[in-house]
Amino acid sequence: MGRPLQSSGKIVVFGRGDNPINFVSATDVAALVSQAATSPSLRGQILELGGPGDLTSNQVAAILPETIGRQAPSGTSPAPPFTRWPWPPPR
Fold first, then answer.
1. What pTM was computed for the model?
2. SS3 (DSSP) at 73
3. Which member of 11, 64, 66, 77 has the greatest number of CB atoms within 10 A?
4. Strands (DSSP E) along the chain, which ranges?
5. What CA dihedral angle connects 80, 7, 18 and 32, to 10 degrees?
6. How many CB atoms lie within 10 A of CB 68?
7. What is the C-alpha separation between 60 and 5, in angstroms, rounded?
8. How confident is the model at residue 81, as a pLDDT?
9. How far apart are the C-alpha atoms of 29 and 49, rounded to whole Å?
């Protein structure tokens, strides 16, 4: 959603946009990985990291204009088809 917003000023939601996702900041992930790699007390621990809650792409599209401080039109685009990979992979 961010790149189309930056380039065209529009928010694009791929597909229906109603599948909940737990968004996590890459900065938060990097901080936790760094801490886990350098802290002996975290060795062998299971660390869970997630955002504050699940949001759909439609919900994020509704929040973004308020977050960036300006109106941004939004729309949906058909989700690109998934490519089926052969399994097992050819040798």
1. 0.60
2. coil
3. 11
4. 11-14, 74-77
5. 100
6. 13
7. 12
8. 59
9. 7
Which residues, 6 or more positions from 72, have their beta carbon under 8 angstroms from its beta carbon?
Answer: 5, 9, 10, 11, 64, 65
Average pLDDT, the chain: 82
User: How crowded is residue 14: how many other Cβ atoms within 10 Å of its Cβ?
Assistant: 13
* Helix, strand, or coil (residue 74): strand
Residue with the two structure tokens 């039109």: 73
Q: Which pLDDT value is given to residue 42?
A: 93
| Listed ranges 10-19, 25-34, 65-74, 76-85; the one with the highest mean pLDDT | 25-34
- Cα 29–33–38 angle (5° rounding)? 150
Tokens 């909940």 belong to residue = 20
Compute CA 28 distance to the chain's CA centroid, rounded to the nearest angstrom. 13
Band (28; pLDDT cuts 50, 70, 90): very high
